[in-house]
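Issue 218. Parser rejects a valid record. Input:
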Amino acid sequence: MATIAFSTPQRPTRIAFPFKVFLPLSLPSIVLLLFFAAPMGLMLGLSFQDQETGTFTLASYGRFFGDELVLAGLGRTVVMSGLVAISVTILAYPLAYYLARSTSRWRTLVFALAIAPELAGVVLRTYGWLVILEDRGFINSALIWTGVISEPLPLSKNLFGVVVGLTHVILPFGVLSLLTSLQGINPNLEKSAQILGASRLAVIRHIVLPLSVPGIVSSLLIAFTMAASAYATPALLGGAAFKVMATMVYEQVLFYIDWSFAAVMANVLLAMMLISAFVGSRLESRLQQKLHL
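Output the parser choked on:
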C-alpha cells in the first residue's frame, strides 16, 4: 500500500543583519560621509559646471590640460613631492632604526627630539627656515662673513628651500612609519646572522632592509601625499614665483573666484595621490612576494 508523505513548506531562513557588529562603525561613517564624501562629491560636480550658466561642461578640464603654466605647476608638484619623499625616508631610516634597537637611557630623549617638530606649528617652523635660508639669513651671512662667498647663495624662493622646509615638517611622520616596521622585525635574526659571521653592514643589507620594505614604502607614500597637498611651506619658502598645485588652487578660489577651475585642480591633485598610493601598494605587495615575506 502506497503512502503519501505530506511535508510542510519550510519558512525561508531570515538572515539577521549584524547591527551590533557595525554599530561601532556608524559614527565614524557618518562623520566621513558628512565631512569628506559630501564635500568631495560637491567638488567633483563643481568641476563639470559652467561658472556662469551652471550647465554641464568639460571646458575647465580642457583649460587645465591645455594650459602650459598649470601643467608646469603639476610637474613641479610631482618633482617636489618625490624629492621630499626620498629625503624624508633616507633621513628617517637610521633614526628609526636607532629607536627600534637602542636600549640606551638617551632613547627617550632622541624620540622626543624626533617628534618635537610636530609640537610647533607649520607656519612657525617654516618661518624658522626662512630666517636661516634667506639672502640675509644665517647661512649666507656666515659664509659671507668668513669670506667663502661674496654673493648670497639662492637657498630660498626656489625648489631647494621648499624641499628643505617640507622635509623638516614631514620627517616625524617618516620616523613613526619606519619605527613601526622596524620594531616588527625579530632582533634574534640579526643576532643569529652576526653569530654566523655576517658583518653589521651585511646584516642591514640582507636582513633589515628587505624586511623593512613595507615601512619604507609607507614612509614614501605618506611623505609624498603630505608634500603634494602642503600649502604653507611652498607659499612661504617658495615665494610668488614657485607655484605648486596647492598654492594655485588657493589663488583660483580667493583671487580669481573661479571655483570650477579650482575644483578641477583639486580633483587632478587627488587623482595623482590615489594613483601614487595604488602604485605604491602594488609595488609593496610585489616586493613582499619576491622576498617571500
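Fixed in the parser; the record now loads. The chain has 13 helices and no strands.
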